[in-house]
User: Fold these one by one.
Assistant:
Number 1:
Amino acid sequence: MSETRSNSTPSPHEPLNENVVFHIHGVTKTYQMGEVQVKALRGIDLDLYRGELTVLLGASGSGKSTLLNILGGLDTPTDGHVIYADQDLTHASESELTEYRRYHVGFVFQFYNLIPSLTARENVAVVTEIAKNPMTPEEALSLVGLGERLDHFPAQLSGGEQQRVAIARAIAKNPDVLLCDEPTGALDSKTGIMVLEALQQVNQKLGTTTAIITHNAGIAQMANRVIHITDGKISEITTNDTRLSPHELSW
Amino acid sequence: MMRALDKKLWRELWAMRMQALAIALVIVGGVSIFVMSMSTMDSLTETRASYYREHHFADVFASLKRAPISVARRIQEIPGVNKVETRVVTYINLDIPDFNEPVSGHLISLPDNSRGLLNQIFLNSGRLIESGRDDEIILSKEFAQAHKLQAGDKIKATINGRLKSLTVVGTGLSPEYIYQIAPGAMFPDFERYGVMWMARNPLASAYDMEGAFNNVTLTLSKGAHSQDVIDQLDDILKPYGGTGAYDRKDQLSNRFLSEELEQQKTTATVFPIIFFGVAAFLLNVVVSRLISLEREQIAVLKAFGYSNLAVGVHYSKLVLMIVLIGVLLGLAVGVWMGKGVSKIYMNSYSLPFILYELKPQIIVSAALISIVVAVSGTLFAVQKAVRLPPAQGMRPEQPTAFRPTIVERLGLQKRFSQPSRMILRHIERRPFKSFLTMLGISLACGTMMVGGFQKGAIDHMIDVQYNLSQREDLMAIFTEPTSNKSLYSLQGLQGIELAEGFRMVNARLQFEHRTYRTSVQGIEPDSQLMRLLDTDLNTIQVPKDGVIMTDYLAELLQIQPGDLLTIEVLEGNRPTFQVPVIGTAKQYLGVNVYLQRSTLNRLLKEGDAISGALLKVDELHQNQVYRKLKELPRIAGVVEQKSSIEGFYETMNETILFFTFINTLLGGSIAFGVVYNSMRIALSERSRELASLRILGFQRNEVAYILLGELALLTLVAIPIGFLIGNALCQYLIFEFATDLYRIPLVLGTHVYAFAALVVIVSSIISAMMIWRNLANLDMVAVLKAKE
C-alpha cells in the first residue's frame, strides 16, 4: 500500500523540475525562547509537487508548524534553502515575503483566526480586496457550502462553519498553495470531516497545491503523500496509492 | 464601497465608544481652550485695531498745566508728527438725581458738532454737541446706563467751583477709554466715575483756558520713532507744566487690554499642554491594549499579504478617528466659549462692537497639534503592530513575569491579603504606566484648582489692599496742592472721624538704566488710614530719610534696599533728587514709592502742602459728608474704593462662575478620561484572571476589589500630588499674569483643595460604577474553554 522513498533531492542550484512547487534543502530553524534555545527544525530536505495534497504528520512540538510557517513566508529559516517556483524565499525581504503571501499563499489555521468584527463575507473580502485575480467572497463561500450564511459574524457561527469561512478566505484569492495548520484540531470528527471535504474539493477542483499539518494519523489517508516529521526531521515519506475520501476516514 | 478593513475599524470604534469618547473629551478640552483663547485674542486684537484705526486713536499723549494754542503749531512741526489735537481736560464733581454718593467725571472738550479729530467718540445714542451750546454734555455709555440717564435728562456739575446745569444730549464710547477707571482706582465703577464730553468753549472759559489747552494728543506719520517725538514734545511742553508725554503702549486703557491679551496667550499654552499630554497618554494605553488584543488578527492580516504599512495605517486611522471627533467637538465648544468670553470682554471693556474672528490657521493648528500629539502618543504601540512578525503573532504572548514587590521583599507581606498583594504586584510590575496613570489623575486635580483659586485670591487681594493697607472710606483729591491747614476744615465737618493729608506727585524713577513712571506718595509716618505692609502683613514704618517701594517695583527696577533711587518729578519745578531705598512693601495693586510727607515737601522745596486727604467717615453721616464735599470747590474728585469693589464683584461674579463651570467640566473630563480608561484596560487585561477567581469562588465585590483597588490606591496617591501640581500651576499663572497693574496673590483656601479632590473622586466613582456592570458579565465558561 505504501512505499518508502529516499529523500534525495536536487541541489539548490539545479533548475527545478517544472512540477516542483517547493524545493526545500537543508532547512534548520532555531528559536531563542527566553534563555532556552529550541531547535525546531534540524535539516529538512523536501520537494512538494504541483497539485498534490500533502499531509505533514507529526506529534506536537515536532516542528511541523515551523516548517509550514517557513513555506508560507511567515518565517525564514536559520539555515538552508527554500525555493518557491523560481523565487528564493530564504533571503527574501520583508516586503517580498508580504507580496509572496499576498499573491500565492492561502492559510487555514487551527483556531480559524477570523476577524470577530467582520461578517463571513467581509472576512473573505479582506483578502479578495488585495488579491490579483480573486473569486468573489460569495463564490468562495458557496464553494465551502456557506452560501447561506454570508452576513453572520464569527460569533454567530459554529466552529465548523467558522473553519469553512477560513477556508473560503484562504482559497478566494485562487492561491497557488494552500497551507493548513491543524485545520480540524479544534473540531469534532463529524465537523472535521466536512472541513476536510471542503479542502479536498478545492484541491481537486482548483488543483491547488495543498499541505495539511496534523497530528492525527487518520487524516493521512486522504493525501497523495504523507511526510512524517519527528524532532525537527523528516523520518519518513509515504505515498498513498489509494486515497480515501474524507468520509471514509476513521478518526 | 467601504473596504472590509475600514468596516473593522468602524465596528471596533463603536465597540470601544465609551473609551473613545472619554479620550475625545480630553482632546475637546485641549482644543476648546486653545481655540477659545486664540480666537478671543485674535478677536480682541482685530476689534481693537479696527476701533483704533476707524476712530483715529492717538499715538502719543501729554498733559500740561496750560499752554497757548500757538504752541500746537510748534508741536505740529516736530518731525514725525502727523495730526495734532489740543484739548481741555478736567475732573468735575457731579450731582446725579437720587444718587447721594460722590460722583466724579473726567470731562474732555470736544469741538462743536464733531466727534473730535483724534480719539473720535463712537456715538451710541443721541447726537453730538451743537455749536454755541455751553450746557450740553455727552456721557460715556456705561456711566449713562449705570444711572439710567438718556438724552434730554439733566444733571448738575460743579465746574471749577460753580454749579452748572447740563443737558445730556447723547451717550458715546471712546477708543481712549476702553478700560474706564478713576485715577487711583483699580476697577471700573460706572456709578461713581465716568468719562464725558462737553463743548470746548464753556470748558475753556470756566478753567481760564481760552486760547489755550492743557492736554494734547497726536498721531505719528509712518516710520516715525515715537521716543524721538516724545522727547521733543517734552522739551516744548516743559515750560508749560508738561507732566511728561507717553506712548500709546503706556496709555492706561490700552495697557489693560494688552495685558489681557498676554494672559490669553498664556492660557492658550499652559492648559492645552496638559490636555494634549493626557490625551496622548490615554491613546497610548488604549491603542497598546487594542493591538495586544488583536495580535492574532494582525498576524492573520499579514499572513494574507497585508503589508506592515497597511497594518500601521489601519491602527493610525483608528487614532485619527478619535482625534477627529475630539477636534470637531473641541472646535464647536471652543467657538462657543470664545464667543462667550468675547462678549464678556465687550461688556467689561467699553467696546462698541466685537468682531469675533476664528482664523483658519487656528483651526489648522488645533487639528495639527492634536494629530501630532496623538500620533506621537501611539507611535510605539502602532510600531509594535507594524513590527510584529506574523509567525510570532500566531503564538500566544508569553505570560508576564511577576516578582515579589518591594513590600514583600521587605518582609511585610503578612500584613497584606492575597488580593492586596495582587494589587501591589500589578502596580509595581509596570511602574511607569502606574506613574503616568497617577500623573493623569493628579493633573485633573491640579487643573481643577486653577479654576477654583481665582475668586479666593481676588478676595484676599482686596482684603489686604483695602482693609489692611488703604483703610480710608474716602479719598478726596484737591484741584491743586493745598496747605495742610485745609485739613482742619475737613475735620470740622460732621461725620468725618479722621482726616489725613497726603502729597502725591508724578515722577519718573530711575535706577541704573531702568526707568519707570509712577506716582511718589508722601504719607504721614504714623498714618492710621494708609499703612504699608511687609510680607507677613505687619505694618512698616515709613522712614524719615528714604523711601519704601512696592516689592514688584523693586523687582522691575532691580533695586535693593540701600541703593539710591533717582526721582525726577514731572510737575512744578520738576526737581530731580536721589533717595536711598529703605525697604519694600507688599502690594497687590499698582506700584508706588512712599516717603514721609514732610520729607517729600522738603525735597520739593515747598511748604506744608498736601494733594488730597484720606477720610474716615461715620456711616450715619455719610450722605451729609458727600453733600458737603461736593460743595467744596477745591476738591477735584472723591474716590470711594469700597463701593467700587462691590460693583466690581457684581460684574466679576458672572465671569468667575462661567470659568469655574468650564474648568470643572474640563478637570472632570481629564479625571474621568484617565480613570475610566485605566479601569477598562485593567478589566480587559485581567478578565481571564478575574473570571478564574470567580470560578474559584470569589464574590463579585472581592474581584472588584482587586481591579478597582488598584485605581483607588492610585487615585488616593494622585490627589496630594495633584495638590502640589495645582499649587505649582497657580504659582506659574500668577507669575505669568503679574503686571505692574496688579499681582494676584497665591491664596489657596481649603475649599479649593476640597473641591478639586471631590471632582476627582466623583469622576472615579462614576467610572467604577460603569465598570461594576462589566464585572457582572465576566465569562467564566470561556475561561475554561479558550486557549490563553
Note: The first strand of chain B starts at residue 60 and ends at 68.
Number 2:
Amino acid sequence: MILTLIEKELKSILSSPKFVSVFSVCSVLIVMSVYIGIEEYKTAMVNYETVTSQVTQQMRDETEWNSLNPQISRYPDPMQIFVSGINNDIGRQARISDYGTADLTNSSYSQNMIFAVFRSMDLMFIVQIVLSLFAILFTYDAINGEREKGTLKLSFANPVPRITYIISKVIGSWLGLVIPLLIPILLGAALILFYKIPMTAAHWKQYAFLIGLSVLYFSFFICLGVFFSSLTKNSSSSFLYLLVIWVCLVLIVPRAGVMIAGQFVKVQTASEISSQISLKYGELSDEYIEKIQKYGKEQRAGLENLEREGITSREEFQKRYEVIREEYRKKANTAEEDFSQKLAEFDAALKENWHNRKAVRQKLGFSLSRFSPASAYQLAAMDFAGTGMSLKTDYEDQLRTYSRLFNKFRADKIEASGGRGYANVFENKKPEPLDLSEIPEFSFVNPELSHVLKSTILDFGILSFYILLTIAGSFIAFIRYDVR
Amino acid sequence: MLKLIIFKELREVIGSAKFVATFGICSILIILAFFAGIKNYETSLEEYNASTAANLRTYKDTTDWDHVRDHRIVLTPMPLASLIIGLSNDVPRAAYINGRDLPSLSTSNYSQQPVFSVFRFLDLEFVFQVILSLFAILFAFDAINGEKERGTLRLSFANSLPRAGYILGKLAGSFLALALPLIIPILIGVLMVSVMGISLTADEWIRLGLFILCGMLYLGVFLTLSVFISCLTQRPSSSFLFLLVIWVCSVLIIPRASVLIAGNTVEVPSAEEISVKRLQLQRQNARTADEKFGEAFQQFLKELRQGNDKSPEFQKRRQEELYAEVDKLRAKLDKDLNDFTDRLNEERHNKQIKQEKLAFGISRISPAAVFTLAATTLSDTSMELRNHFMESAQAYSKSFADFFRDKTGKSIDSKMVFDMDQEEKKKQQLPIDINEIPEFVYQAPDLSTILHDALPDIALLILFNLVFFTGAFTAFMRYDLR
Amino acid sequence: MTESINAGTNNTIVLEADKLTKRYEDGVLALDELSFTIKSSEIYAMLGANGAGKTTTINLFLNFIEPTSGEARVMGIVTHKEPLLAKEKLAFVSENVMLYQNFTAIQNLDYFAKLGGKKNYTRDDYRNVLLRVGLQEEAHNKRLKGFSKGMRQKCGIAIAILKDAPAILLDEPTSGLDPKAGYEFIQLLDNLRSEGKSILMSTHDIFRAREIADTVGIMNQGKLVMQAGRDELTDKDLEQLYMKYMAGHMEAAA
C-alpha cells in the first residue's frame, strides 16, 4: 500500500511539466553557482599569490631586521566556493605591526565595490532562496490539490488509512524532490574535481555535512508545504499563505533579527575604542614623563650632593655615583613597566568589554533571527564552510599570537646582529640580505570539524524541530481533513 | 465604460480577503522599513558624533598647532542613506588625512561589524524591491486568464465592449487598486521621518519623492508584466508559475549573475597589487638615490682631500652643487614613480569602468536591478559614494593644509620641530581650541548631478512599463475570448 | 431487460441505511432518518434536487463524514465503525473527477487498482476494462490532460469496475456523458448488476433512473419522500411523481 502511494507520488512529481522546467532552472543555477565560486576562488588565489610573492620579494630586498614588517594575506579556502559568508566582507590582508595588533583590512567588497552591489550567488544562496521556493512550488497543493482533482475522494473510497496516506505523501514528495537535486550537486562536485581545486579530505567532509544540512533545510520546506496544503481547502490559498511565510522566513526575519539586536545592544565603534586607548596612552605617558623627570631631578640632586660632599677617593666616588645611577635606573624601569602594564591592563579590559558587548549583540541578533529556519541554515552553513563570524575573530586571534611570536623573533635577531646594524652609506658598504628562511611561518588553522559540529548542533536542532513540528502538524491536520 | 471597468477592478481587488491580508503585511513592512531607517540614522549620528569627538580628543591637551597635522574624518551620516542603505556599509566610513597625501580610507562598516553583513539590512529599497513586485504579481497574475476561467470574460464581451477599453480599464484599475492603498503606509513613513525630528533638505525631499516615484514605476512594471503574461497563458496556475520564475530571476538571480559574469569577463588588477608594485619601485628608487648620494658624498670628500681651493665658500658651494644633483635625481625618480602608479591606477580605473558598464548593462535586463540602481543613485549610496567621499576628503585635506598654514605660518609639508626645551615652555601655554579645526562635512553631489545619473534608470523603468503595457495590449487584442 | 433471472447470488442485503441522520456543524439537517436497503444484483437510484442529501448519503457510506445518528452498513459492516473494512467492499464513481492529469489512463487505473488491493492486473486487463467502458484504444496511453469530461468519467467508471467490490456507489455518473455514452453506461450497469453487484446511484436523470433502477427513491430536504419498485412505475408516472413530491413537500414546508 505505502509503496503504491509513494510510487504514485514520485511519478506524479517527475512527470509534471512544471517539474521539468523548474528542476532544470534549479540545476543550472546550482551548477552555475559552483562554477562562479570556482572562478572567484581562482581569482582570489591569483590575487593571493601576486600579493604574497611581491611581499616576499620586498622582504628579500630588506637588509634590516628592524624594517621587516611582513604582511599576511588570508589564504583562500576552497569552501568559500559553496558558502562565501563574510569572506568578502572582512579584510584579506593584515600587516604585522610592532604593537602586536593585527587587524584584517582591505575587504574584497570595499576594494571591488561592484561585487557588493548585488552580492554573490553561492550554493548556499541558491539552496536558501531558490530551492526553498522550489519545495513550496511542488508541495503547496499536495493534499488540497488532490481534493480539488477529486482523487482524494477516490483514493479514500479504498481501504487506505489516513496516516499511511500522509506518511507516503511526505516520503514520496521528499524522494521525488531530493533525489533529482542530487544530480546537479554531484555535477558541482565533479566541477570541483575537474578544475583540480585542492579540496582535502576534511574539506570533503565539510562539504558532505553542508549537503546534509541543505537537505534538512529543503525538507523543512517540503513538510511546510504539505502542512499548509492539509490545513486549507484550496490550493490557491495555501499557496498565498506559503508565499507570505516564505517571504517572512527567508527575506524578512533574518534581517530584522540582527537589526533589532543592533538597536538594543549598543556597541562602540572601533574608532571610539582606539581613541580611548590613545587618550589613556597620553594620560599614562604624561604620568610616566612626570615620574622620569622627577627621578631625573632626584638623580641630579644626588649627584650635586655627591660633588658637594667632596669625596676625594675616586673609587668611593665611583661607587656612590653608581648607587645613585642604579637607583634611578631601577625607578625608571619600574615606571616604564608600570606604564606598559597599566596600558596593557586598560587595553585588555576595554577590549574585553567591547568584545563581550559585541558577543551579546551577536548572540541576541542571531537568536532572534533563528526564529527562521533560513537563518539557522545560513549560520550553520557558514560555520561548516568556515566563513562564519568566527572567521574574523579566529583569524585575528591567531594573527595576534603570530605577531607576538614574530616580534619576539625579530627582537632576538636584532639583538643577535649586534643591536642596530644600519648599513652605512657613508662606509659605502653593500648591506647583506637577511636570511628569511628562519622567519616563523603563519598558517591559519581552521577550527576542527568536531568543534564546528558542536557549534552547529543548535542549528541542526532548530531545523529538526521545525521539521518535526510541520510533520506533526500535517499529521494532525490531515487526520481531521475533510476529504470531500 | 472605462470608468465602470476601473471601478469593478478596484472593488474586486480591494474587496478580496487576499488583499486585506497582503496589504496589511506590506504596510507593516513599509512602515517598519521607515522606522528602522530612522533609528538607523539616529544610531549612525550618535556614532558619528562619538567618533568625531574621539578623533579630535587626541589633541585635547596639545598647546601647539604644529602638532596637529593629521587626523581622522568620518563620513557624515545622511538620512537618505539610512533609508536606502545601498553600499553605504561597504564603503569605508572614515579617512585618515594629513594635508599632503591622498586621504587613506579605512575599513568599511561591514568589515568592522560583520554581524550586520551576514543577513544585511532590511531597508526601504529592499522592502520595495521584494514586496512591491510580489504584490503586483499576486494580484494581476490571473487578470485575464482568471476571468476567462470563471467565464466572466465571455459574459463581459457579450456586451458591446471594445477590447482596448477593457484592457485599459483593467490595467488602470489594478494599478490604482494597488498603488493607492500603498500610498497610505508610505505617507505614514514619510510623516514619521518629519515627526521624529529628522530634517531633510529640499533636495533630499525631492530625492525621496523621486525614489517613491521609482517604486511606483517598479510596481507598474510588474503589474503590466503580469497582465501581459496572463494574456499569453491559458491557465492562471501556469501564468503564476511563470511569473514567479521571472520574479526569482529578476530579483534574485540576474543582478548577482551579471556582476559575476562581468567579473569573469573583465579582469581588474587588484589595488593591493598596484600598491605593492608602487612600493617596490619606491624602494628601488630610494636605493638608487642613496647610492647616488653616497657617490656624491665620497666625491665631495675626495675633492676635499685633494682640493686646491680650501675656502669654506667654495666647499659649501661644491657641496650644494653635488647635493643638488642628488635632489634632481630624487625629483625625477619621484616623478617617475608617480607617473608609474598613475598609469597603473588609470589602467585599473578604466578596466573597472569597463567591468562596471558590462555588469550593470547586463543586470539592467532585470527591472529589479534597474530599480536598485536608480534608488541607490538617488540616495547617493551607489558605487559613486566611494568616489564622492574620496573627493570630499581630498578637498577637506586641502582646506586643512590651508588652515595649518594660517595657524602656524608653515607649510604642512615642513618638518615638525621638536625641541625639548621648547616643549617645557609649551606646556605652560594654553591648550589649543580643537574646535577651530575645520569640520568635515560630506558634500553630497548636488541634485542636478544625481538626477543626471539617475535619469537613465528612471527612463528605463518607464520603458519597461511601456513595453509590457504594449505587450499586454496587443496580446489582448488577439486574445481568444472563448 | 433481463431482470434478475441470471442473478448468480442470493438476494442478501449489501447496502443498508438505517435511520441515517446527518446534521452539519452549522446546524443544517442534511439527512433526516433515512432508511433503505439494497440487495445484491439490485440498482437503487436516488432522485432529488440539489441539496436534497444524495451526495451526503454517499459520503456517509464512504465514511467521508460521520453520521449524527443512525448507521450506514455495507454487508453488515457499520461504515463509521470499521471504515477500512467497509471500504474494501465499496467501489465509488464520483461526479466530475479530474484524476491525475499527468498520468495516462492506464497509469491512473493501475494506481487506483493497487490502492484497492488488486495487485495482479495486467495491461490487458486495463485495456479490456477501458474498452468495456467505451474508451477508444488510442486514448489508453495518453495523458489525461487532453481528455474531455466524458472520457474522464469513463476512466472513473473503469476504476470502479476494476475494484470488483460487491457494492458500487455512483454520484451523478452520467453527468457529462453524451447520449450515446449514456446509453452504453446503462448497458454497463445492467451488466454489473447481472454480475451480482449492488449499486447505489444518485442522479438527476429521471428517465435513465426509470430505465435501469430496480428501486427509485425520491429525496427532498434530507428525507426519503417516496420509494417505489420498478414495477410500480412507468416513465410518465415517475416524472409526475417527482414533480408532485417536490411540490408537495414545498407546500408542506411552507
Note: Chain C has eight helices and ten strands.
